[in-house]
């Protein structure tokens, strides 16, 4: 039987999950599967912590940005030195990150993830005053500390990672997308050698703690490891990426987050009295134009990932192609088309990670079919940005129902809604708080 006040119930359980996953310095995505700090997870956690503990939201963001590299990249994982090497694979030793001046005590990877942090910082700031004058003052100080670091993160992605010369950031590894084994990468990955012998040397820790049918396959992992080795052995340099690296892809979701970050930076610059607000808005417009120009396929009427090396668009319809809906400057024809696609038999709201009608759809395998709360949260933002209040509210209620009935799981079965992956997952809990508020 459902509790008489499901909202209060959900609020309590979400807060509990965030408390349990707090290490004292940062929030882990999940105690079972991901024992370190992940980049975009930190941003989503902060969006929820804004309601219940803004001090912890700022601490979380600070912990991550203390590990920022001098070139501006914010690592996709910052390792906890107190966690044993074999608690997560690939652990710190695999990455061999070069020493640099001011390098933090915690090791990291050399990859990135979608830059959700400017939006998160803006959201935490926006809600700070509700926690009193001290919280409002702290928010201002934290924003001031973060702003130049957020700008450096955007500059790294916008300059060093513009491998296609198109005004878009490229990812050099599926892990950078956050949507690891999405079918969006299948075509580009087919050109990456899968050296299965790499797996003889290493142990896939993820398979000790989760169901192998839910996780990326061994041949995916062989390619993932080979890609890290190539990027790592080139010193994590981004020079001539398209010539030297076998996986260089422009993702519509990653670049939508990049544009959204510029818009959040425009707001932050306004509050801090920096003259750059206009420049941030111009950058967001430039990225929006490039996404539309480079990643829209007029044949399929959808956004697709582009393989910079081959120049080809991925033929797959996946949820990342819906996310440009979050761009305020997207033209109304494309907005209508995306909303219709989101509600069509391919997806349906809440949207699964992949086209339900396509051959690559797999209802339990990670980013190839299940429903994820964070991408649906972004979709809902897109609906709101374009004034689709009814659809946005319907989606909000459906997401809350899903989590309330099944728990704060990492992802959900797109058929029966059952919880999959890690239980007590931070971004599911954090975004539930935002959806409830
Ligand atoms: C690799 C932590 C991360 C998320 C990603 C998700 C998954 C890692 C993994 O977990 O990726 O980075 O081991 O599978 O795909 O989005 O940030 O929650």
UniProtKB/TrEMBL annotation:
Residues 34-428 form the Mannosylglycerate hydrolase MGH1-like glycoside hydrolase domain. Keywords: Glycosidase, Hydrolase. It holds the Pfam family MGH1-like_GH. The keyword Phosphoprotein does not apply. The keyword Hydrolase applies. Belongs to the glycosyl hydrolase 63 family. This is Mannosylglycerate hydrolase MGH1-like glycoside hydrolase domain-containing protein.
């Amino acid at each position: 039987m459902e509790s008489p006040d499901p909202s209060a119930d959900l609020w309590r359980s979400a807060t509990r999950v965030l408390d349990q996953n707090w290490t004292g310095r940062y929030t882990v995505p999940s105690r079972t599967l991901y024992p370190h700090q992940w980049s975009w997870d930190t941003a989503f956690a902060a969006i929820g912590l804004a309601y219940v503990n803004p001090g912890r939201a700022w601490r979380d963001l600070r912990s991550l940005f203390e590990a920022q590299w001098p070139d501006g990249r914010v690592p996709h994982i910052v390792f906890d030195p107190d966690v044993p090497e074999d608690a997560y694979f690939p652990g710190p030793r695999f990455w061999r990150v070069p020493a640099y001046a001011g390098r933090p005590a915690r090791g990291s990877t050399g990859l990135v993830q979608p830059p959700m942090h400017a939006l998160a910082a803006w959201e935490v700031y926006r809600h700070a005053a509700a926690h009193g004058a001290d919280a409002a003052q702290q928010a201002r100080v934290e924003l001031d500390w973060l702003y130049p670091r957020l700008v450096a993160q955007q500059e790294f992605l916008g300059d060093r990672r513009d491998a296609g010369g198109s005004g878009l950031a490229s990812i050099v590894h599926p892990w950078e997308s956050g949507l690891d084994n999405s079918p969006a990468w299948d075509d580009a990955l087919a050109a990456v050698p899968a050296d299965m012998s790499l797996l003889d040397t290493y142990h896939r820790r993820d398979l000790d703690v989760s169901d192998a049918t839910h996780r990326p396959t061994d041949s995916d992992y062989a390619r993932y490891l080979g890609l890290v080795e190539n990027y790592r052995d080139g010193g994590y340099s981004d020079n001539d990426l398209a010539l030297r690296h076998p996986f260089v892809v422009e993702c519509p979701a990653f670049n939508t987050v990049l544009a959204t970050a510029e818009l959040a930076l425009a707001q932050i610059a306004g509050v801090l009295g920096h003259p750059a607000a206009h420049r941030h808005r111009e950058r967001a417009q430039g990225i929006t134009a490039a996404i539309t120009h480079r990643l829209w396929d007029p044949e399929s009427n959808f956004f697709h990932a582009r393989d910079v090396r081959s120049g080809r668009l991925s033929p797959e319809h996946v949820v990342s192609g819906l996310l440009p809906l979050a761009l305020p400057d997207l033209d109304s024809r494309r907005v209508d088309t995306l909303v219709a696609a989101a509600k069509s038999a391919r997806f349906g709201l809440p949207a699964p990670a992949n086209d339900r009608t396509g051959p690559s759809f797999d209802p339990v395998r990670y980013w190839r079919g299940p429903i994820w709360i964070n991408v649906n949260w972004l979709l809902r933002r897109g609906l709101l940005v374009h004034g689709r209040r009814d659809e946005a509210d319907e989606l909000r209620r459906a997401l809350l129902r899903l989590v309330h009935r099944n728990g704060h799981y990492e992802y959900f079965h797109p058929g029966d809604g059952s919880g999959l992956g890690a239980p007590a997952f931070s971004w599911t809990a954090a975004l539930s708080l935002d959806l409830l508020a």
